[in-house]
Design a protein that fits this description.
It is found in: Nucleus. This protein is mostly helical. It has 29 helices and seven strands. The chain starts with a helix and ends in an 8-residue tail after the last helix. The C terminus is likely disordered.
Length: about 750
């Protein structure tokens, strides 16, 4: 019975039958007393605990020697550093991490996730200390007709979310000798469990010698970045460098900068050493030439050199006594150079000459007043310029820098820029006698800064003298160099124009000298500000047929020589002519209007404008419009003409009547029927021909009115319930009759 029972269990449970039978029967065993069941305790994350202050007296008894093992490293439940923990301990574990977000877990698990949250789940692992699993257990579904397998039953899942912390970190052996299979390739299911299954033989792969040679055998370990990488060739290593694989090279960049700075200092020192050596070689070459020239000197030439040295010594004694002027010293050395040129060159007497000239020049320039006597000392210094050659040009420049220029700068510091003539004579004399570079440096360093300082202190409201009196004399000498002075002047003039009245003509006299001096960027803003002031004044002056005030217009005409005519025409078109057209229409509307007086008034206004303005297209258009209004009144006898602003008025004025908007001459070419059709469209009125004729002419319906067009006249039919005849009417009367009833949209 026992045998059959055992066979049945084996058929059902297989290899697990023995364990099941042992569990049910619990047969005694000889080893049950010594072998205890194994309890697996999961490791946990160490939580900070408060260590009690009590001491454990038996620590020394459990540890044989403190010298051999430190108590901090004793992994025992009774150790001082393990108080409050379970007897079974493991090392600290990384905190558990969730693979899914809260939203994903709520969508996937619904009520279960909400129950977890009610139990206090806030993320991480399960349990009181958050040391349990952090990710839900995944279920692997077996394929059809597949039984239990030796491998592959457990899902390779990271329940604690710690695998990502070790991702990408592999040892050097793993990098050099990878054993992992590709990610997309899974192990094939073994067929050994089948009844007639036979293990498959491993396929043998044969390679040629060329294939073996072509296989990469070199391994390059790249340990420069935070991760260790292996390259099989230098080309692969270069490709990895070109990408973003190496993200941190701070140490390399720091070391590179140190090396660059170190070698940069070495290169700079080498260049300085090279220049020093070149200077030494040049001086040695010159000295060599002098020695060779001295060796070739004959006895007669040597005697002449002695006489030359005696004469130069005599000149030095005179220079020390102060009895020799700078001009006399230049004449004597020039005489010696012409008389004995070879000996003069052998002795390098020109160096001695400039050495003696410097103290002499300083002594003479100390009492010189260059603004009053610009010719005396400059003539002497010019003689030294003629004597200097190409080799001694540096010595002459040093003489100028040490003696002449300091004296000139000192004199120009106390010079008043409002008296330009003395300084202009001095600069011109320097430019004539000396090289232009010295005069240009004097202008840039002293003259222009002094003029700029004087302009900053100039106040146009208090100073009676205009700056053009002391600036324009410099124009022939400085030219474009003075452009830096115009902007400050323009700003000061512009601030004064803000409080200027258009009737004050002093501004015209003040701005006239600057018309051809200022560039357009400085001149145009000033003129625009002047015209805007005059335009405002004209706009505030009404146009009246009797007793007209012409002061603002005359002020505008006075600026015709400074302002462009097109800008003046624009001012008249925007400020004057709207009022002029309004006054003309009001006069024509008067029942006692005398057309001869209107014509005379029109001709008077036209004669008032200068000829240059009358020839402007804008002005001609405005006068032609007024004349067309007069002709229309005289020809058609329209008793009433509404106010209008003429051609210059804006198109968005809602107060303008449609009839008056069509009066200008540029619209008079339209036929009367076309004109009324456009007016009707603007007013939303019906304009259609009727089945009626009068005197052979077509009769039209315009809104609530019935009209007939005859050339340039409009006849209106009498009321339907009244007696009367067709009569001519103005456009305003026709529109009034057409609007008698509510408008009808077309």
């Amino acid at each position: 019975m026992e045998k059959s029972r055992r066979g049945l269990d084996e058929n059902i449970y297989g290899v697990f039958a023995e364990a099941g039978r042992d569990d049910r029967r619990q047969r005694p065993s000889s080893t049950s007393k010594t072998n205890k069941p194994v309890s697996f305790v999961r490791g946990q994350t160490l939580q900070p605990t408060n260590v009690s202050a009590r001491k454990v007296d038996d620590d020394a008894a459990k540890v044989e020697s403190d010298d051999e093992v430190d108590s901090r490293f004793v992994l025992d439940a009774n150790a001082p550093n393990a108080q409050g923990l379970k007897p079974t301990m493991e090392g600290p574990k990384l905190p558990a991490r969730n693979k899914l977000s809260f939203n994903q877990m709520a969508n996937n698990y619904g009520k279960g996730f909400s129950m977890l949250q009610k139990m206090g789940f806030t993320g991480g692992g399960l349990g009181r200390h958050n040391d349990g699993i952090a990710n839900p257990i995944e279920v692997q579904k077996r394929q059809g007709k597949m039984g239990l397998q030796d491998d592959g039953e457990m899902v390779g899942q990271d329940l604690y979310g710690n695998e990502g912390n070790e991702a990408g970190r592999r040892s050097l052996e793993e990098l050099l000798f990878p054993t992992d299979q590709p990610k997309g390739k899974r192990e094939s299911v073994s067929d050994g469990w089948k009844r007639d299954g036979k293990p498959k033989r491993q396929k043998t792969v044969y390679k040629t010698a060329d294939e073996v040679v072509s296989e990469p055998t070199m391994r390059i370990v790249d340990m420069r970045g935070p991760e260790v990488k292996v390259a099989s060739s230098f080309s692969e290593l270069a490709a990895s460098l070109a990408g973003d694989s190496v993200r941190s090279l701070k140490e390399l960049r720091h070391n590179t900068r140190l090396l660059v700075s170190r070698y940069e200092e070495k290169i700079r020192a080498s260049i300085e050493r090279q220049r020093h050596c070149e200077d030494v070689l040049l001086s040695v070459a010159k000295e060599k030439e002098r020695v060779e020239a001295a060796e070739k000197v004959s006895d007669a030439e040597l005697a002449t050199c002695k006489h030359l040295v005696t004469e130069i010594e005599a000149l030095r004694e005179q220079q020390d006594q102060g009895t020799l002027s700078l001009l006399d010293l230049a004449d004597n050395f020039s005489r010696l150079q012409k008389a004995r040129p070879k000996e003069f060159r052998i002795l390098a007497a020109v160096d001695v000459a400039f050495a003696l000239a410097l103290p002499t020049a300083r002594r003479e320039f100390a009492t010189w007043q260059p603004l009053k006597q610009p010719h005396d000392r400059l003539k002497a210094i010019a003689r030294w310029q003629d004597m200097a050659s190409a080799k001694t040009q540096e010595q002459f420049s040093a003489l100028i820098e040490a003696s002449l220029l300091p004296c000139l700068r000192k004199a120009l510091v106390v010079w008043s820029p409002r008296e330009p003539e003395p300084c202009i004579r001095l600069v011109e004399r320097c430019r004539t006698l000396l090289q232009p570079v010295y005069a240009d440096s004097l202008i840039a360093e002293v003259v222009l800064p002094r003029l700029r300082s004087e302009i900053e202190g100039w106040d146009p409201r208090l100073d009676t003298s205009s700056p053009h009196l002391w600036l324009h004399p410099w124009l022939p000498l400085l030219g474009k160099q003075m452009d830096i002075l115009w902007a400050p002047i323009r700003f000061k003039i512009s601030s004064c124009l803000d409080r200027w009245e258009s009737s004050d003509m002093s501004a015209h006299a003040f701005l006239k000298p600057w018309q051809h001096v200022f560039d357009p960027s400085n001149w145009d803003p000033l003129i625009e500000k002047v015209l805007s002031k005059i335009e405002k004044s004209i706009g505030q002056t009404p146009v009246e047929p009797d007793g007209q005030n012409l002061e603002s217009l005359r002020s505008l005409f006075a600026w015709m020589d400074l302002a462009p005519l097109d800008n003046i025409s624009r001012v008249l078109e925007s400020a004057f002519f709207p009022q002029w057209h309004g006054a003309l229409r009001r006069w024509l509307r008067d029942s006692e209007c005398d057309f001869s007086e209107v014509l005379q008034w029109y001709q008077g206004w036209k004669a008032l404008f200068p000829k240059e303005l009358r020839e402007q297209g804008r002005i001609q258009k405005q006068f032609a419009s007024g004349l067309e209004v007069m002709k229309h009144m005289m020809t058609h006898g329209v008793p009433d003409i509404p106010d209008s602003e003429g051609p210059a008025s804006s198109k968005g004025d809602d107060n303008r009547s449609p009839a008056s908007a069509r009066l200008p001459v540029d619209e008079i070419s339209l036929s009367l029927s076309e004109y009324i059709s456009e007016v009707a469209a603007e007013e939303g009125l019906i304009f259609l021909p009727k089945k009626q004729r009068r005197n052979g002419k077509q009769v039209y319906q315009l809104g609530a009115a019935t009209v007939q067009l005859d050339k340039n006249l409009i006849y209106v039919s009498p009321p339907a319930n009244g007696d009367g005849e067709w009569k001519a009417a103005s456009m305003d009367e026709v529109l009034a009759l057409a609007r008698a009833t509510p408008r009808k949209k077309k």
